[in-house]
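Hi all, a correction to my earlier message: I attached the wrong file for Polysaccharide deacetylase. Here's the right sequence:
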Amino acid sequence: MATTPTWPGGKSAAVSLTFDVDAEAGWLGEGAEYARRLTILSEARYGVTRGVPRILDLLARHDIPATFFVPGHTAEIHDGLVQTLLDAGHEVAHHGYLHLRSDKVSATDQVEEIDRGLDALAKAGAPAPRGYRSTSWELTPETFELLVDRGFAYDSSCMGDDRPYVEHWEGQSILEIPVHWSLDDWPRFGWNIDGGGNVADPAEMTRTWISEFESARAEGRHTSFTMHPEVIGRPYRLAHLERVIEHMVASDDVHFARLDDIAATVAPRLLAAR
Ligand SMILES: [Zn+2]
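and the right structure:
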């Protein structure tokens, strides 16, 4: 396939590294019973106390700007987290308030997830978020309409293409920067005593993600990877992420960008073609 450099710097591929800082909200949003499960909550907290600093060091080593999706609850209980991310030059985007799954709660609760999330990020010092990612990537018609109504520039929850595209619902549309389960750390490593992933060999992730990058490069595509600090922030897994990054950097053919920057780059072409 012909390579058409359309990304800044004449690079063939664009890559976004994205981190969902679910922290305790990732469990508390599953049910009130998690409030007394101190072990699982402590692993969630590890994502903020150990995972995020390691990730920030890695991104700084390679001078890569990234996008962090932060639930409002996480921003509230982890004082200074949002400011630390902003100070390092990263994007802070919307990931609900208590990480409630839109498909499992009422329309009223969906409004609260969006608006309390906006309030919490604002109180933590973040500029109005440009992007949104739904909990567990389950986007509903009600939340879709809220995103359009609240003026979000992009959503990053759907899988209808492997390039940025325009997602539609009943006459409304939003710029979509797609995701995929194969490009997510959680299905590989997100194990807990009740189930989940299978504590996979991180070398599989390295091979798969490098393959994805090379396919994006061949097609001149943007691609994004989704990670969770308590998962990818375990040292041996982060070492494998660094191998993926080193491969991309060595190609000298990649434009690393935050999702809001990707949205700004592709929006004129995609939204004009609607
Ligand atoms: Zn999440």
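Sorry for the mix-up. Strands lie at 13-20, 67-70, 91-94, 131-132, 154-155, 165-169, 172-176, 222-227, 254-256.
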